[in-house]
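I hope you will forgive my troubling you with a question about protein structure. I should value your view on which stretches of the chain appear to form regular backbone elements. Here, with my thanks, is the record as I have it:
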Amino acid sequence: MLPNRMVLSRQTEDQLKKLKGYTGITPNVAARLAFFRSVESEFRYSPERDSKKLDGSLVLDKITWLGETLQATELVLKMLYPQLEQKILIKAWQHMLMMELLH
């Protein structure tokens, strides 16, 4: 469902790198935690209010980003956003983890 190669916005990438500097947690693990915390907090993505570009330089394959949470992440995204196409789903994933990183 999600593309095999995933890129983030520069802002999200910067937040993940900052978090790694403070905690030592790698960006991919921090992204997994942030995504599920965002789901738990009932944050929902709205494509109409999102004008951010996925312009970061950190590009990883989805198995690296999502690891053992790959299937669960894709199922949650499909459950929450059944109408969104693949390109928008990655923005939903990215936006949800960014909202959690900023809190």
In short: The mean pLDDT is 91. The chain has five helices and two strands. The chain has one domain: 5-101.
